[in-house]
TrEMBL record:
The keyword Transcription regulation applies. GO terms for molecular function: DNA-binding transcription factor activity; sequence-specific DNA binding. InterPro entries: AraC_XylS_family_regulators, Homeodomain-like_sf, HTH_AraC, HTH_AraC-typ_CS. It comes from Mycolicibacterium madagascariense. This is Transcriptional regulator.
Length: 300
């Protein structure tokens, strides 16, 4: 278990806030995580500094924080205002602290330097050790804001998420951070080739054997002899959709077969198609087809 208190439940305990999170280890020897924080009752004290580590936090604030008082390495930054949708960057090793003088709701992306190194190594680019930012100065980052907003509903039911979905989103965040804040500069333009027919067949077979989505991108990539990012790009180029989108499609197609050809209950079909419960199955099927599974069965 990680000793970091900059993501997950330990992050929430440090700030006395409610925290929900998920993480990926799609990159070698590294973790990229996202945590939703809700802090409802201001205590008007200085936040506890995090455990010192070589990592960054990029926080998307979803509510107005009118008077943001911030310190880095004990030095006060100019007082600022965080507006809904704003992104602010923290360097964890510089002991960021702020005054807990306001309720807040935020989504924090945790990106350690080890992840930035892995991304740069794969791109054959110089390693990234620092991100470009100004302490306590927020800015608009449309990608991180939209990603945070897209993830909000999933924090309420993390068991409904498949690991391929988490890996896909967190890997995209890592690459965005490296490019936008770390000036990722590949020495040569990366070649994006598709999967061989054998790699495609094997990857699809592995995912079809376990529709629950517990299989990780890193596992699929290793089976195909590729890095995680290479596999993700190659799969999309070959198949026309990401691995997690393909997995959802297979779930829906299997569900249709069972609805049409069996008398199994919706709860039984949900479990047989990799869903954790019937309600999750119903929401996913309806979102994908525009009709509930019960109604779909009746009109067949």
């Amino acid at each position: 278990m990680s000793l970091s208190d900059s993501y997950g439940e330990s992050f929430g305990r440090r700030l006395n806030a409610r925290a929900r999170s998920f993480a990926t280890r799609a990159l070698p020897k590294s973790t990229i995580a996202v945590t939703e924080l809700r802090y409802d009752h201001p205590e008007f004290v200085l936040s506890t500094p995090p455990i010192e580590e070589d990592a960054f936090l990029l926080a998307v604030h979803l509510e107005l924080f009118e008077r943001y008082e911030y310190w880095e390495d004990g030095k006060a930054a100019p007082i600022s205002t965080l507006h809904p949708g704003d992104t602010i960057v923290y360097d964890v090793k510089r002991k960021p602290t702020f005054h807990l003088n306001s309720a807040f709701h935020s989504v924090h992306f945790y990106v350690p330097v080890s992840a930035l190194h892995a991304i740069a190594d794969e791109a054959e680019a110089p390693r990234i050790d620092e991100l470009h930012y100004r302490p306590a100065v927020s800015h608009a980052d449309a990608f991180l804001r939209h990603t945070a907003e897209a993830l909000i509903p999933h924090f309420a039911a993390p068991s409904h998420l498949n690991q391929l979905f988490i890996d896909h989103y967190m890997l995209a965040v890592g690459h965005h951070v490296a490019s936008t804040y770390g000036a990722l500069a590949p020495r040569s333009r990366p070649k994006v080739a598709g999967l061989t027919s054998r790699q495609e067949r094997w990857a699809k077979e592995l995912m079809s054997e376990d529709l629950s989505g517990k299989l990780r991108l890193a596992d699929l990539a290793r089976e195909c002899g590729l890095s995680t990012s290479q596999f993700s790009r190659a799969f999309r180029r070959t198949v026309g959709e990401s691995p997690h989108q393909w997995l959802i499609r297979q779930r829906i197609e299997r569900a249709k077969t069972l609805l049409r050809e069996s008398e199994a209950s919706l709860a039984e079909i949900a479990l047989g198609c990799g869903y954790c419960d019937q309600s999750h199955f119903t929401r996913s099927f309806t979102a994908w087809t525009g009709i509930s599974p019960g109604r779909w069965r009746r009109v067949q």
